[in-house]
Structures
1.
Amino acid sequence: MNGSERHHRERPPSPARLYRDTERGIFFGVAAGIADYVGIRPWAVRLGLVIAAIPFTFPLVVGYLIAGCALQPRPVGLYRSEEEAEFWRSVRTEPQRTAHDLGLKFADIERRLRQAEAHVTSREFRLRREIGEL
């Protein structure tokens, strides 16, 4: 096994990837995996599949079986918390909004950091520190 193969195998599972959800799945877990990926309930995806099966039975069954064989099962512990799972669902469904929200959070952190820096470098802070050392 060469270095690139070893690196490929040791890579942690990606939370941005589509997986089969065998824990909540009925048949292969494809519908439950799609539901987890987009952040909706599995019954809604199953209902959509049943409705789509009326006019497109053969292509839907073939596609479902291919997805069931091609998709990997969702790894145990893929998300550390429900908040992390919700974050990744929002990244997958609304990447522009998520990027905007992250930009706002970073701007807020920078603003607070500048305020702290201004306070620490102020004369008042130095004076209080020197008085405290007396």
Note: The chain has a mean pLDDT of 83.
2.
Amino acid sequence: MTDNIYNEVLLDHNLHPLHLHELPCASCTCAGLNPTCGDQLTLHLNIENGIITDGAFTGVGCAVSQASTDIMLELIIGKSVDEALHLKELFGRMIGSAITDEELEELEEAGALQNISKMPARVKCAQLGWNTLGRLLDEAVSGGAQ
């Protein structure tokens, strides 16, 4: 993998996001903000019987935050809440450079953001959607999501 964070995967998800839209059927939503750069998003998930059946996001932000959130949604749709939380934890460890090659494989395309750790100013951008996911799922599990 090259040291350039703006790789083909990131650019493709930024230019052609699959999940950047409203989600009228969402059973829960959560807003996220990166006050450092102004990126903001609202994550919308539909969770049925502990499975994330659909997801989308709305908002504005840099290429890294938008692509990372789109990649995340592609990865977690169809997964259980527990699996999504596991992937969130792996993503955080990857950004912190504390992940094994086998764990990196679990992240699929999200692994394309591995080199973001070399650009500390961009780490919060990459983690915005993932951190918002963590809050949303914590609220959903505790029954407090809207």
Note: Residues 120-142 form the longest helix (23 residues).
3.
Amino acid sequence: MSPRKTTPNPAPATPGPRDMILRMLQLKSGMKQDVYHRILGLFHELKEVLQEVAEDLEHEMVQRDKRVSVQYRDKGEMTCELKVAGDTVIFHMHTNVFRLDQGHSLWKTSYLEEDEQRGYFGVINVYNFLSDSFKYNRERDLGYLVSRLFLNKDGHFFVQGKRQLGFLYNDLAGNKMDREVLKQVIYSTIIYVLDFDLLTPPYDQVNQVTVSEMNEINAGLQLSTGKRLGFRFQADVDDLT
């Protein structure tokens, strides 16, 4: 009996551009939708926690010093603010999903090496302004980016920021976001803002004022003001973590 002839298996067809597009839409774009819904849910929870924190601190300060106020305001779907005495902290959720820049040290961790999609994040930016800048409509006043909160598809996060905000929450693999952790991040942000003082600019920087500027001052549009205007401190100019 002659040996049975076997037909070799055909080589797998190379996926065409249409198949590649469909695969990318399913995997990458689908993952970005997961990240977006994660950060959107977190931002809604952030609003709730900010309101709780504001009400708690305001209640306590009424007993201690009625002149000091803490207030929360919802400014729309993507923005909210916390007014803490003379500071206004603005939280803004970006609508896009970002891939962590390739040079970031987190790419060298096993957490991202195991799954590259963990390196895509939704972002909440946190800004610090002087409350008087809004009260007196000083449009040229400066605000500062205090921190950025990054959240991935699995609910892991890290915070990029100055001082304690840069090192308290930098363990992406170990940081899983929940309501209590979110409250601690908010507390850390408030502490940083309250400790970030308004400093006078150098005398030689402001010793001349034009007629136009004086007219603006008289009209309520005062000279540009910011917490670090004219001064640079090493603790504040270090690169963000």
Note: The chain has one domain: 25-198.
